[in-house]
Amino acid sequence: MYSTTVAAFVVAYFVPCLAFTPKECHDSIGPLALRFLSTKRPYTYQTSNPEIPIPQTCTPVKFWYFGRHGTRYPGDDDILAMMDTLTPLHTEISNSINNSLLCEHTRMYLLSWRLGSDVNLLNESHLHEQGKGELQAIGARYKSRYPDLFTDQFSNDTHYFRATDAERTVSSLKAFASSAFSNTSSFWFPNPIKNDPILKFYSVCEKWKEQVDNNGSSRVELKKFLVSSFMNDTITRVSLRLGLARNLTVEEITIMYTNCAFETAWMNGTLAPWCVAFGVEDFQVLAYTEDLEYYHVDGYGSPVNWESACVVLQDAANFLGEYEANPRNPGRNVQAYFSHSGATLKFLARLGLFNGTEINADNFDNVKDSYVWRTSDIDCMGSNIAFVLLQCEDENDLKLGVLFQEQLVNVFDLQGPYVDYHQFKNKIQPILNTCDFQQICDVDA
């Protein structure tokens, strides 16, 4: 996908700037940029966080998984913008590069950029090879943690996998399964359906579609921030840094940031050429535009976002409850779903995770270092939530682990790492009792 020139500069990219001092030229911020790539950030398993072992007296008996697809190609709008806006902009920058404030090796890295031939409309939104690797690694790690559940041989009697009707989710499902099972000769999953009522519940929620997704009021904060002094200052800084005789437009700086994020993901976290145009302040502002939109469209910004996600929690509860109802015949061991950002974010909100300070256009300067609804952290490619049910010594002693990005987390004020299953069940019962999807999604309710 990349020219040999770009490949050479990937290596040279981190070489210290020799021709200028840091005060005279702008250098890339390096791996720190990964904190600001929003929903395009590649999945990175946090190996620095130690695994919390399962108690010796307990055995995993049920595993439920809900995850976003892996790293993908851009959608058609972004691909066209990369072709029609980014490519001519690159030519314009190349012609004025001697006026730029970039360090010499950083200039050369940016100049080496070419849009890959595989970034085309035939591949739009499809799973990238990097995404396949991400899901294979996730599947392999879960198999390593729970080998008695992910047996060598896949069986329809004990395992159930399901994806939406998008190529990227189906391919993610297959990649996960290829590593989770040694033998997939009998592997089967149901034909995906359009607007799956569990995996894409929001697509059949009329209230969400009318009052949030297709309603301009849900993006008011985003629109205000796009014309704020913070965005204007970012545009001025980056335009000057690139040596342009004019200011970039919002559309131009946005597609620069989008390409930076996608290509960094495709290179497994190595910073892509367009990323060198931005400093920390710029990345903070650009990431905040994404976080604002997802907060209000998929997160805590509107009650219907998280209220409608009760159907996902209901599905998990039903699956886990099969074991409690009949330990000797508990149904399938594994239930795994492969979905999208819109579903995973709403489900995170339904679980009460990452619910900190409200974010809006006016409080960026106050919250930029402290807010928790950061899509770079909570909605990266391959983002996933899982429940593992443990049978411990006593027949009634059931424990539950809730995992986010493969790390145990606390939900509903229950302190883990593994919580009493019955306490968890009691905590979620009020949510399930009021989980009337038709009522929640009724536009007239």
From TrEMBL:
Residues 1-19 form the signal peptide. Its EC number is 3.1.3.62, 3.1.3.80. Keywords: Cell membrane, Glycoprotein, Hydrolase, Membrane, Signal. Pfam families: His_Phos_2. Its main location: membrane. The keyword Glycoprotein applies. The keyword Thylakoid does not apply. It is found in: Cell membrane. It catalyses: 1D-myo-inositol hexakisphosphate + H2O = 1D-myo-inositol 1,2,4,5,6-pentakisphosphate + phosphate; 1D-myo-inositol 1,2,4,5,6-pentakisphosphate + H2O = 1D-myo-inositol 1,2,5,6-tetrakisphosphate + phosphate; (2R)-2,3-bisphosphoglycerate + H2O = (2R)-2-phosphoglycerate + phosphate; 1D-myo-inositol 1,2,5,6-tetrakisphosphate + H2O = 1D-myo-inositol 1,2,6-trisphosphate + phosphate. Belongs to the histidine acid phosphatase family. MINPP1 subfamily. PANTHER family: MULTIPLE INOSITOL POLYPHOSPHATE PHOSPHATASE 1, MULTIPLE INOSITOL POLYPHOSPHATE PHOSPHATASE-RELATED. This is Multiple inositol polyphosphate phosphatase 1. It comes from Orchesella dallaii.
